[in-house]
């Protein structure tokens, strides 16, 4: 019997690969396809994550423009939600689903879905003070006129952990 790392021969068949060579050969057959798949996956990821500014023209409400001042125009619909079930979650998003971080001054429609009896949705800022009530679940629509400044949306009973804000220019 031969040791795993020693070369073994069989009469009439010539020398066979030693154990280390067979192991290397097996690894190369398993890894070789990955040698092509990994760079292709990396290039696909890089291509998907990058975009050329010269080939992209942002439009109001588009994901490319989301979050930029003026990306969402006055007259747009914003959607707020609070308490998905009883979860401590509060959000305000634009029509593309992007979180609202900054807006142009003007009039907006805000549709709020309050899904919990333990939470409320309170939108406040210069000239705006709208809120749902805690003991009920509801869907409401407000038309608000936003002027320059900072606005907050909070769950009043849980303001320390359920809050957000955006600016208006």
Give the tags.
alpha+beta; 5-stranded mixed beta sheet; 4-stranded mixed beta sheet; 1 helix
User: Based on CA inertia axes, which overall geometry fits?
Assistant: elongated
Number of helices: 1
Would you list the SSEs in sequence order as H and E? EEHEEEEEEEEE
Count of extended strands: 11
Global Rg: 30 Å
Quaternary form = single chain
**Secondary structural class:** alpha+beta
Average residue pLDDT: 75
Strand content: 25-35%
Short description:
The longest helix has 31 residues. The protein has 169 residues and is an alpha+beta fold.
How are the SSEs placed, and which strands pair?
Elements lengths: L8 E2 L3 E2 L3 H31 L27 E6 L7 E4 L8 E2 L2 E9 L7 E4 L2 E4 L6 E9 L2 E6 L8 E6 L1
Parallel strand pairs: 3-6, 5-11
Antiparallel strand pairs: 1-2, 3-4, 6-9, 7-8, 7-10, 10-11
In words, what does this structure look like?
By secondary structure, the protein is of the alpha+beta class. Helix content is 18%, strand content 32%. It contains 1 helix and 11 strands, in the order ββαβββββββββ. It has one helix at 19-49, and strands at residues 9-10, 14-15, 77-82, 90-93, 102-103, 106-114, 122-125, 128-131, 138-146, 149-154, 163-168. The strands form 3 sheets. The chain has a 5-stranded mixed β-sheet, with no helix packed on it. Strand 7 (122-125) and strand 8 form a beta hairpin.
């Amino acid at each position: 019997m031969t040791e795993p790392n020693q070369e073994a021969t069989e009469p009439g068949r010539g020398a066979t690969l030693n154990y280390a060579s067979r192991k290397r050969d097996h690894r190369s057959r398993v890894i070789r396809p990955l040698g092509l798949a990994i760079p292709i996956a990396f290039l696909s990821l890089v291509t998907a994550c990058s975009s050329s500014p010269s080939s992209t023209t942002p439009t109001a409400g588009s994901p490319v423009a989301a979050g930029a001042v003026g990306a969402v125009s006055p007259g747009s619909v914003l959607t707020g939600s609070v308490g998905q079930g009883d979860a401590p979650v509060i959000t305000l998003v634009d029509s593309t689903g992007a979180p609202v971080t900054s807006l142009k001054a003007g009039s907006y429609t805000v549709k709020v879905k309050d899904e919990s009896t333990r939470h409320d949705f309170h939108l406040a800022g210069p000239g705006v003070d709208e809120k749902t009530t805690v003991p009920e679940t509801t869907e409401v629509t407000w038309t608000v006129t936003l002027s320059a400044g900072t606005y907050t949306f909070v769950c009043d009973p849980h303001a320390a952990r359920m809050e957000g804000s955006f600016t208006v220019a």
